[in-house]
Amino acid sequence: MLTYKSYGNSEKPVLCLLPGAGLGAWAYNQVIPLITKNFYVIIPDVLSNFKTIDNAIYQLHELISIKFNRKIKILAGLSLGSQIALALVAKYPAICDDLLLESCAVFPQSISKLIKPFTKLSYPLTRFNWFNKLQAMTLHLPPKMDRFYNQEVKAMSEQTLVNMLSANTAFNIQNLIPINFKGKIIIAYGTKEEKLIIKSSNFLSKEFINSRIIPLKNYYHGELTLSHPGRFCQIINSFQN
Description:
By secondary structure, the chain is α/β, with parallel strands linked by helices. The chain contains ten helices and seven strands. It has helices spanning 32-35, 53-67, 80-91, 115-122, 129-138, 146-154, 158-170, 195-207, 223-227, 229-237; strands at residues 4-7, 14-18, 40-44, 72-78, 96-102, 184-190, 211-216. It has a seven-stranded mixed sheet with strand order 1-3-2-4-5-6-7. α1 (32-35) links the parallel β2 (14-18) and β3 (40-44). The protein is globular.
């Protein structure tokens, strides 16, 4: 069964966090001390040996069914994690009460066809600290996370990296519609993100009448989780209102 890290009091409502590609539980280091006041936090390890989104949702459903009586309070995903979260509620709409999608792309990208050859060329460079540091800067990771990102990428196989990037860029919401999730949904994106993310966020907000969209002024991709833990927790706690 899928392994996971847990934080806080298990008697509190369950908040499941799904990080993006290249990230791990460490991406929530600043969030956890704040959010465990109200939630029991679990971070499943869906990415270290990632194969497909279908495989990830099978493992998550098994975990939640066995360990949490088939339902959790909130599911929150970032980037690839948000795509996995969306696919999970599309297949199992009663698996959580509320859903946070951060920086979620829902339309396929033409670059997906180039992922395999591009990764074959670039993967050897991930053995070098300087390359991973440049990648971390491109991803707008806070400097204090460079070390964790470097370790995460070096531990990743070439095939896992191909699988993650392929799934992320080929994701297509049309394969999931109709989605019968009835809970509350918050869709968050940074105004400095790529147009695809902004287009996707606006599409999602129209697709779900029970959704609320939050444009985060001057935020880059994933910056809510990675650099603004207080704001992230405020958004999670707003589900309770």
